[in-house]
């Protein structure tokens, strides 16, 4: 992987298992139940990885044999923000690790005329400025809508170094854009694809994630 | 913030090591399970002498599920059409030694003695033939009782036996017993029975059966007080079995002590979960006695899912697959066949992994083995095993267990899998919490050729001091299932 210079990218270890999971979800012949299951598995790995970068605080607990154990505990204070619609598919994976996590939503659509992303709607936790934010969107291609979402978050007072952008596949182009504009935002991903096709889809990619997860 | 490069190296792949480990399999394992040293008792005697009731008394008094009673009746030779006709007319000699396939009986008992899963034929007395496609499968027995008129006849079979018993009784009594049995429970007529007795049973008994008495270690006179004699034999058997289980325990405790110890971190067959902040935080929650059961189950499932997934990271990418993506790209990518993964849970504590296994591979078939420690001696005992059919065809067999303390149950379970044709390099032990001694015993028993994935291994040094006592108490499954 050529992600070496990008200190803002956290790439999942490219294990045999992970490569196998990606092969399943990239295959156009994979049927929806399998696509959902295996995409969910990757999402779970991304969430676990993202959580590993959050701070913890020392905590001493008492064990069932009445001894003290020096452990650590979560600091909490996180929230998820999904970019509607495809990003919502990642909420379940986040909930499976953090049951009562708050989840905000952002709707960004591409303007048919200008082909530029346009913000339609946002609903975010009030105290989001104090929180670590997991921004959820499965694909980072050109990075246009994700960048807009991050601007929304920063405008609401979230510190850029507290934003983790979780996605399944990203492009070199998207990483470059983030590196230039939001160097402190961390991208947690499982695969970096070689480029974009003329329709701005990732290559090889997996098609339209939202369609495959929800519709086809 | 961890850079990408540093991150990957900290999770370094272990597949190379797995290969090295696999090569060590050629050495024979050091663990000898109780079923490869079964105690074999032969009980012979003339027809109607009371062998069956002596055998029943013995098995009842041993009273363990791993005792199996095999009747030589199962090994009668199938009859040809003419012989079958003779048999219907009571003119076939079932009491001569050739009527029974003692060579097959020998093969079966020998295979049991080697600890293998063995199929015993089923004989139909109506058709005078083996019931096609039907066999009784026997596995894991550490006491085998072989009963039949020619149990003490066949020299190689005698070689296999640890104790040979002849039940001696007057032939008149035998006749009386035979008549009542054949007429009442087998629905034969009196005349036929008498004819058979005179023509076959009695001459054979005198000619072939009674002389086998000289092969016996003990003779039970079934006319006098059968109770005293049988009890004496039973006492003897019990003392031998105690000795056998003591040896088994000693052997188990010897494992793990024999070698120059290399540090846990250098053991190539052991992979401990990276102690990331999340893993440590989850461990803390699970150790806290004030954690609610709701939380305990939730967080155990979470860490178990991480662990199961970690164990599958090294799964082999069996082939390259040419796929077309929905955007029309044709690419060749490594492919993994998750259907080739199965798992075996050691009841009850392994059942804590049920949900995380299903979460990792949805269609996974899950087998179970029940191994319990004897409440007096602590000896692990195999009660039953339910394994997926054709388990030897799977590429990965995950053996799951919440806690390893002595390691005995896992050693036994691995042996069960080996006996069913699963090679060590296909097995992976997945355990949440283990003691160092348990891990060393398992490793040692199978010459380092078994891969172990643990969330945490508590070193022996830490166990010695007071604060890690929890690693020696079985708290995980009690809390997960909410009952001790």
Question: What this model shows, in words?
Answer:
The complex is a heterodimer of chains A (216) and B (484). Chain A has 216 residues and is α/β, with parallel strands linked by helices. In chain A, a hairpin with a 5-residue loop joins β13 and β14. Chain A is globular and about 65 Å long. In chain A, 31% of the residues lie in helices and 30% in strands. Chain A is built from six helices and 14 strands. Chain A has helices at 16-26, 32-51, 91-97, 144-155, 172-181, 209-215, and strands spanning 9-11, 56-62, 68-74, 78-84, 102-110, 117-123, 132-136, 139-140, 163-166, 169-171, 186-189, 191-193, 195-196, 202-203. Chain A has a single domain (9-57, 68-215), classed as 3-Layer(aba) Sandwich (Rossmann fold). Chain B has helices spanning 4-10, 15-23, 51-62, 81-88, 102-113, 155-160, 171-185, 190-209, 226-254, 277-287, 293-312, 354-360, 408-419, 436-445, 460-464, 476-481; strands at residues 39-45, 67-71, 118-124, 129-138, 143-147, 163-168, 218-221, 270-272, 319-324, 330-335, 341-347, 366-373, 380-386, 396-404, 427-435, 451-458.
């Amino acid at each position: 992987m050529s992600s070496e210079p990008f200190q803002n990218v956290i790439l999942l270890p490219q294990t045999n298992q992970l490569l196998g999971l990606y092969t399943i979800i990239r295959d156009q012949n994979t049927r929806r139940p399998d696509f959902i299951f295996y995409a969910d598995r990757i999402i779970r790995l991304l969430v676990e990885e993202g959580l590993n970068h959050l701070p913890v605080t020392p905590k001493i607990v008492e064990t069932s044999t009445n001894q003290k154990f020096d452990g650590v505990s979560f600091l909490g204070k996180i929230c998820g923000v999904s970019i509607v619609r495809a990003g919502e598919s990642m909420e379940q994976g986040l909930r499976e690790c953090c049951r009562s996590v708050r989840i905000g939503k952002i709707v960004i659509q591409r303007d048919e005329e200008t082909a530029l992303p346009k913000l339609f709607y946002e609903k975010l936790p009030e105290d989001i400025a104090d929180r670590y934010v997991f921004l959820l969107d499965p694909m980072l291609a050109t990075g246009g809508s994700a960048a807009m979402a991050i601007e929304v978050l920063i405008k609401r007072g979230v510190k850029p170094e507290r934003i983790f952008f979780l996605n399944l596949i990203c492009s070199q182009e998207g990483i470059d854009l983030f590196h230039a504009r939001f160097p402190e935002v961390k991208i947690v991903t499982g695969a970096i694809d070689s480029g974009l096709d003329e329709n701005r889809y990732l290559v090889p990619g997996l098609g339209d994630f939202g369609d495959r997860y929800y519709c086809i | 913030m961890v850079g990408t490069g540093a991150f990957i190296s900290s999770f370094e792949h272990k597949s190379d090591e797995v290969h090295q480990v696999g090569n060590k399999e050629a050495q024979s394992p050091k663990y000898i399970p109780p079923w490869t040293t079964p105690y074999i008792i032969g009980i012979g005697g003339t027809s109607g002498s009371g062998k069956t009731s002596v055998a029943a008394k013995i098995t009842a008094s041993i009273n363990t599920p791993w005792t199996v009673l095999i009747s030589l009746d199962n090994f009668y030779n199938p009859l040809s059409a003419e012989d079958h006709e003779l048999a219907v007319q009571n003119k076939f000699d079932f009491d001569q030694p050739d009527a029974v396939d003692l060579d097959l009986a020998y093969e079966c008992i020998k295979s049991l003695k080697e600890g293998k899963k063995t199929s015993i034929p089923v004989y139909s007395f109506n058709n005078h033939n083996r019931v096609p496609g039907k066999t009784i499968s026997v596995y894991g027995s550490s006491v085998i009782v072989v009963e039949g008129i020619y149990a003490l006849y066949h020299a190689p079979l005698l070689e296999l036996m640890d104790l040979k018993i002849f039940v001696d009784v007057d032939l008149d009594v035998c006749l009386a017993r035979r008549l009542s049995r054949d007429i009442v429970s087998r629905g034969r007529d009196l005349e036929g029975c008498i004819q058979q007795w005179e023509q076959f049973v009695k001459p054979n008994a005198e000619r072939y059966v009674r002389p086998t008495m000289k092969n016996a270690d003990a003779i039970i006179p079934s006319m006098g007080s059968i109770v005293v004699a049988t009890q004496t034999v039973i006492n003897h058997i019990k003392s031998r079995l105690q000795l056998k289980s003591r040896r088994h325990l000693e052997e188990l405790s010897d494992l793990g002590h024999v070698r120059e110890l290399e540090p846990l971190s250098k053991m190539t067959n052991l992979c401990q979960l990276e102690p990331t902040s999340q893993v440590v935080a989850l461990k803390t929650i699970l150790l806290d006695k004030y954690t609610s059961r709701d939380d305990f189950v939730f967080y155990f499932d979470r860490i178990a899912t991480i662990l199961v997934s970690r164990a599958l990271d090294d799964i082999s990418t069996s082939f390259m697959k040419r796929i077309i993506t929905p955007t029309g790209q044709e690419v060749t990518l490594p492919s993994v066949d998750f259907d080739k993964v199965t798992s075996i849970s050691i009841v009850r504590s392994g059942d804590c992994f049920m949900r995380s296994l299903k979460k990792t591979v949805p269609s996974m078939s899950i087998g179970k083995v029940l191994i319990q420690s004897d409440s007096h001696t602590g000896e692990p005992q195999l009660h039953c095993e339910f394994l997926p059919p054709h388990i030897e065809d799977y590429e990965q067999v995950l053996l799951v267990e919440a806690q390893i303390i002595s390691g005995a149950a896992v050693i036994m379970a691995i042996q069960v899998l080996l006996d069913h044709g699963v090679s060590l390099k296909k097995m992976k032990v997945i355990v949440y919490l283990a003691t160092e001694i348990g891990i060393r015993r398992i490793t040692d028993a199978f010459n380092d050729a078994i891969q172990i994935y643990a969330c945490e291994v508590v070193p022996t040094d830490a166990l010695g001091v007071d604060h890690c006592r929890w690693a020696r108490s079985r708290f995980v499954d009690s809390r997960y299932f909410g009952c001790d």
